[in-house]
Design brief:
The chain is α/β, with parallel strands linked by helices and 307 residues long. The protein has a single domain, classed as Aldolase class I (TIM Barrel). It is 34% helix and 19% strand. It is built from nine helices and 16 strands. An eight-stranded parallel barrel has the order 3-4-7-8-9-10-15-16, surrounded by eight helices. The protein has a four-stranded antiparallel beta sheet with strand order 5-6-14-11, with no helix packed on it. Helix 5 packs across helix 6. The longest helix has 17 residues. 50% of the residues are buried.
């Protein structure tokens, strides 16, 4: 009997629609293996750049009532080390692995993509949505359609036969337009969204912002309505598959993403309160939903709210 949770993400077959999002437990092959063993259909590495990057000083991640506030600052060991971790992961797990990359400028996106392609990840996710790096116009790359077009063309050329997903930000006038720009310039998939903001919280005792960086990205359940709306709009604008994420922490939120148009669902901040068990918990919840509604294939639900 075929797996009812199986989906096709482009040409990539997933045993579950759930994907570990970039930035969460994605620095080592061992941690990625643990996630895959707990029910993730694929895992995403932490975003890597051309060189090692220390990131912002601590405190850089602060939980609050409705999610997380973080200013990690794209800390990573550099693309050369990430290649070794991807290769090591291949010896430990058969699960698909997605390499997340970023660049300090347009040309660097191409350089990092070309290097990481040597590790032959199943997919390359291009992080143009982080507020820590900006285009020449002072905007996050994902808010600049000219930069989006140029980066997408370049990384597609450098990725060779490896499919490319462009990770977009909600912090732009029209995420649907940005997705269309990426698709029209060769993107195979769209990932949406990254954290929103920037946001700030203040410690009442010391009367200062809680983060050393003062501001940071907002993630967790509080951004779910924004993320669902973004996936909905992207689905109506493009024909390529969508990896939807942002605020997913349970079965209900994962199914909302799928009904909005996501083929696969990213889980990031949702790992913090529940641990790795969140993947099997949501998988089991989706199976039960499908059983009670007499749905045979999960793929039949993709974009179902648009009907």
């Amino acid at each position: 009997m075929s797996n009812p949770l199986g989906v096709l993400l482009g040409k990539l077959a997933l045993s579950s629609p759930l994907i570990l999002s970039s930035g969460i437990l994605g620095l080592s092959a061992s941690s990625l293996k643990r996630v895959a063993a707990q029910g993730a259909g694929a895992v995403t590495t932490k975003s890597c750049g051309l060189n090692e990057r220390p990131g912002h000083p601590c405190p850089s991640v602060i939980p609050f009532e409705h999610g997380l506030l973080n200013a990690v600052g794209l800390s990573n060991p550099g693309v050369a080390e990430m290649i070794r971790e991807i290769q090591d992961f291949r010896t430990k797990s058969s699960a698909p692995i997605i390499a997340s990359v970023f660049g300090a400028n347009i040309e660097e996106f191409g350089m990092v993509t070309e290097i990481i392609a040597e590790a032959k990840p199943d997919l390359i996710e291009v992080n143009i949505s982080c507020p820590n790096v900006e285009s020449e116009f002072g905007l996050p790359f994902g808010s600049d359609p000219v930069a989006c077009a140029r980066i997408t063309k370049l990384v597609k050329k450098k990725a060779g036969k490896i499919p490319v997903s462009m990770k977009l930000t909600a912090n732009c006038p029209s995420i649907a337009h940005m997705a269309k720009v990426c698709q029209d310039n060769g993107a195979d998939l769209i990932t949406a969204i990254n954290s929103v903001g920037p946001g700030m919280l203040i410690d009442l005792n010391v009367r200062k912002p809680v983060l050393a960086n003062k501001t940071g990205g907002v993630s967790g359940p509080c951004i779910l309505p924004v993320a669902v709306r973004c996936v909905w709009e992207i689905f109506r604008a493009v024909k390529v598959p969508i990896i939807g994420g942002g605020g997913v922490s349970n079965t209900d939120s994962a199914l909302q993403m799928i009904l909005a148009g996501a083929t696969a669902v990213g889980i990031g901040t949702g790992v913090y309160p529940k641990g790795l068990s969140v993947f099997n918990e949501i998988n089991n919840g989706i199976r039960e939903f499908m059983r009670t509604k007499k749905i045979r294939k999960l793929s039949s639900l993709i974009g179902g709210a648009h009907v």
